[in-house]
Inverse folding.
């Protein structure tokens, strides 16, 4: 009888653990998701811009500490506040939006610090070249939105890439840096 009770208790514990695992899907909230970039300008100032159109989804299991994110950025939506600069950035000199209209990030290696996502590693595709990158979370949180009555998870993620590794060499001859800093601020709504 004692063995039967122990087996039942073990089965109940296992079932509770399985029930507690939560692999949830989240969709990017376009009103709270921003993708920006920064690059030095002749060692004096920093050029900044953003992409106004982006979409993506996240699968996250905070118990198993696993996840997957897919993000697509519309290069034609680049916005620096200056139309002439936007057009140059979209030209074949830089992002070549006519030939490569999207940038894509797919990440499936999540690391956690406690119950918070601390990094996401995956592949960034830019100018039709795919290379590994790791996004570092400056903050990560999940909360129950009082406005939409659903769970929202997100954070500010950043990385610095060598743009020349993707074939974006414009300006190197003038002294512009190879490094470009990317910041992806994401809030995603549980589906």
């Amino acid at each position: 009888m004692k063995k039967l009770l122990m087996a039942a208790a073990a089965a109940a514990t296992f079932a509770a653990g399985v029930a507690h695992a939560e692999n949830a899907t989240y969709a990017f909230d376009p009103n709270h998701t921003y993708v920006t970039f920064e690059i030095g300008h002749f060692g004096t100032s920093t050029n900044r811009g953003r992409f106004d159109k982006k979409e993506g989804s996240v699968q996250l299991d905070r118990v198993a500490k696993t996840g997957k994110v897919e993000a697509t950025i519309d290069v034609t939506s680049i916005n620096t506040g200056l139309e002439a600069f936007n057009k140059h950035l979209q030209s074949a000199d830089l992002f070549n939006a006519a030939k490569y209209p999207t940038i894509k990030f797919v990440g499936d290696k999540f690391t956690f610090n406690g119950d918070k996502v601390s990094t996401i590693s995956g592949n960034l595709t830019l100018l039709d070249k795919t290379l590994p990158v790791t996004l570092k979370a400056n903050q990560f949180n999940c909360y129950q939105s009082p406005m939409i009555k659903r769970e929202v998870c997100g954070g500010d993620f950043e990385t610095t890439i060598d743009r020349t590794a993707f074939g974006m060499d414009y300006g190197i001859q003038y002294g512009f840096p190879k490094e470009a800093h990317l910041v992806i601020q994401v809030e995603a709504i549980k589906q």
Q: What stands out?
A: Residues 1-20 have pLDDT under 50 and may be disordered. The domain at 22-190 is CATH 2.40.128.110 (Lipocalin).
